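BUG: 3D viewer hangs when loading the predicted structure for this chain

Environment: internal workstation, default settings.
Expected: structure renders.
Actual: progress bar stalls at 90%.

Input used:
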Amino acid sequence: MYTRQLLPDEISLIPEPLEKAFDEYQEEGFEIYLVGGGVRNLILGKVPENCDLTTNATPEQSLEVLKMHSPFYNNDFGTVSFNVTVNGKEELYEITTYRSEKEYSDYRRPDNVSWGKTLDEDVARRDFTINAIVIGVKNSRTQELENSRQYELIDMVNGLIDFEKGLVRAVGDPRVRFNEDALRMMRAIRFAAKLGFAIEEYTLSAIGEKSELLEKISEERIRDEFLKILGSNYPADGVRLLISTGLMARFMPEILEGKGVIQGGHHKLTVLDHMLEALAECPSTDPIIRLATFVHDIGKPRSQRFKCRKCGKMFRNLSEETTTCANCGYTQPTKGMVTFYGHEVIGARMVKEITERLKFNRKQIEKIETLVRWHMFAYQSDMTDAAIRRLIRKVGKENINDMVMLRIADRKGSGAKTTSWRFMELQKRIGEQLFEPMEINDMVVNGLDVMKALEVSPGPIIGKVLKELFDEVLEDTEKNNREYLLGRIKEIGKT
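Structure tokens produced before the viewer hung:
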């Protein structure tokens, strides 16, 4: 076991609510330690946030100790939570009783939880060594009256050594840890992707060996962990680990269809490798946008065809480096024949199925589906303003910036520059049109105006007239003029 006192610079990072929690438990004679992410933050020179703590106090005793903070007991595992404010930001602190766990028949939750008596018992049941380092107050309340408060870091599992080496290592036998909770396999990858760490050899091997256990985990938990990986500092590295360990095949096997699928034109990478590079280059930190970026070409393998460059004959499943067209006899490089017509339509259907399967919410599903469906839009300088507005309508005002992020990632993931004069011009023109009428409700007339002008009651004619007016306004925004539109209502009403 390794112990050391915290340095003054580290102590200065401890927020007041955390100090107070230490004091309140010590005053009642209980042990209490900071654990998990809060400890990692201190080691990295950051302020602990949303702290997790562990104590020998039972949940009932914790509720009494924390009674001035309106605590609540929120699960069956001894966790008492309460809200604190740190630098004006509300955070949640969670305090869990020392415990030992036995038998995980559903590979998710322990069948039996018993409160522990010692810190050693609690540390032994934790997932990874870097999460099992704890920090507590070394001296007692009485000693503090004579000396300054002293904090002690305690490491029973060589977690600090692993932290310094940049390793994610399971506590004890990794196969046992993953049998206890199969989601820990994804958590290992998430910590590696978040911290830029490698996964220790035996832990990584155990993930591959136990990957099928992920099928025991609910779609919601898998989805949430996957989004955390996508939102990490190194999302593409995390996804590569999901693929290489076999975990991706357990919850999103469609991704693997792109493995080894060649592309033509300017593409030098296979479909899967390009998707990974696009994810790595995505300028957005939003995990939903990163997911859309990653899966934007997921429909390519199912749409791949090979087109003879001389006669246009289409073929499937060509694998040789050169192909002689069976129709016209022309011999050509097979890579130059590759097409993916309609892959964005196929891809949109696929991501809808995937996101529904993983129980994303409706808004997230629609955004991802929209970004994949319309990511192939082509821009030419001679496009009219009306064409730009139609593009914005298809994508949605609320999605247009995210689409730009996806296109930047797509370009860089193909080896191109971040932007080009054409792409910059498109962005400029989109910006110019964003505040022009995009919806029927943006017009200066409405259904009441139609009813009054035509002297009709509510009915289908109202929508028909408004749509015809809007089609005109979309083509020429100068026509969004009340006098002109009222005149057009009467003209349309006569037809």
